[in-house]
Specification:
The protein is α+β, with helices and mostly antiparallel strands. The chain contains 10 helices and 12 strands. Helix 8 runs antiparallel to helix 9 and helix 9 packs antiparallel against helix 10. The structure holds flavin-adenine dinucleotide.
Length: 254
C-alpha cells in the first residue's frame, strides 16, 4: 500500500531516493491508475513535481525541454508551434495537463506520440542516476534507477507529422509518421508499427537519393516494422496503411 510520496528538490535527490526503492511519478497518468487499482504494489512514490525539471528554453535553434514539463506546456509555447499538431493529437486536454515529456518518452507504443516526434528530431535524452549523467537517444533503454532530466533538439526546417487514429480524443495511434525533410539529414520516425518508435532508414535513403521519390520511399518504410494487434487496429492493417500515411505525410497532405 502507498505510504509516502517524496518530493525531491533536484534530479540528483530523486535519483538517490530511486536507488532506495519506490516508483518515479511525472504526471501520474500511467502510474496513478496502477497504484489506485493495486495493479502495481507500491510503498513509495517519488514525484518530480518540485525537482526543477520543468521548463522550456530556446536558444537560437536549440531547444531544451525539462522532463517534468507537461504536454500542455509544450503545446502552449509559440516558439514550438511546429509541435502543436503532435500535442493536440495526444489524449485530451485533461490528460495533457498532467502528462509530462519524460513520461511520454517511456510509455509503450502505441502511446508515446511525442517520443516519435522527438526521434524524428534526433533529440538527445539526458538521464541522471547516482552514478552520474549520460546522454542517450530516443527509444534507447533508460536504466532502472535513472531519471530522465531533459531533452535537447534543433528546430527543424521542414517538418511533417501525421497520426492515423480512430477518433479525435483519447485514441492511440494506428500509425504515426514524423519527419524532418532536410536533404542529407532527412529523418523519418514511425509510431504504432513496432514496440518502440523506430526510424524508417530505408525510406530516408530513398529520399536522400531522390527527394521526389515519395511513393518509393513510402513503400520502403515497411522495412523493419514489427506491427502488433491491439484494440485500435490489427498488425496486418497497420502494415497495410503505413505507406499511405507516409506518402501523405511527405507530401504534406491532410
Ligand atoms: C485516456 C488516455 C489517453 C491517452 N492517449 C494518448 C495518445 O493519444 N498519445 C500518447 O502519446 N499518449 C497517450 N496517452 C498516454 C499518455 O501520453 C501518457 O500516459 C503520458 O505521456 C505519461 O506521462 P506521465 O508524466 O503521466 O507519466 P507517469 O504516469 O508519471 O509515468 C509513466 C512512467 O514513466 C516513468 N517516468 C515518468 N517520468 C520519468 C522521468 N522523468 N524519468 C524516468 N522515468 C519517468 C514513471 O516511473 C512510469 O514508469 C494516453 C493516456 C490516457 C490515460
Amino acid at each position: 500500500m502507498l505510504s509516502k510520496v517524496h518530493l525531491p528538490s533536484s534530479a540528483a535527490e530523486a535519483a538517490g531516493l530511486l536507488r532506495e526503492g519506490g516508483w518515479l511519478i511525472g504526471g501520474g497518468t500511467v502510474v496513478m491508475p496502477k497504484v489506485n487499482t493495486g495493479a502495481v504494489p507500491v510503498d513509495h512514490l517519488i514525484s518530480l513535481r518540485n525537482a526543477g525539471l520543468a521548463g522550456i528554453e530556446v536558444n537560437a535553434n536549440t531547444v531544451t525541454i525539462g522532463a517534468a514539463t507537461t504536454l500542455a506546456e509544450v503545446g502552449a509555447d509559440d516558439r514550438l508551434g511546429f509541435l502543436d499538431p503532435v500535442i493536440r493529437s495526444i489524449a485530451s486536454p485533461p490528460v495533457r495537463n498532467l502528462a509530462t515529456v519524460g513520461g511520454n518518452l517511456l510509455v509503450p507504443q502505441p502511446h508515446g506520440d511525442l517520443a516519435v516526434a522527438l526521434l524524428a528530431l534526433d533529440a538527445t535524452v539526458h538521464v541522471e542516476s547516482v552514478n552520474g549523467r549520460r546522454a542517450i537517444s530516443v527509444g534507447e533503454a533508460v536504466a532502472e534507477h535513472e531519471v530522465v532530466t531533459e531533452v535537447h533538439f534543433e528546430l527543424p526546417t521542414a517538418w511533417r507529422y501525421r497520426k492515423a487514429m480512430r477518433r479525435r480524443h483519447n485514441s492511440a495511434a494506428i500509425v504515426i509518421v514524423a519527419a524532418v525533410l532536410d536533404g542529407e539529414r532527412t529523418r523519418i520516425a514511425l509510431g504504432g508499427v513496432a514496440p518502440r518508435p523506430i526510424r524508417a532508414h530505408a525510406a530516408e535513403q530513398v529520399l536522400r537519393r531522390d527527394p521526389d521519390a515519395v511513393v518509393e520511399a513510402a513503400e520502403a518504410a515497411r522495412a523493419g516494422i514489427e506491427p502488433f494487434d491491439d484494440a485500435y487496429a490489427s498488425a496486418w492493417y497497420r502494415a497495410r496503411v503505413l505507406p499511405v500515411h507516409v506518402r501523405r505525410a511527405l507530401l504534406g497532405e491532410d
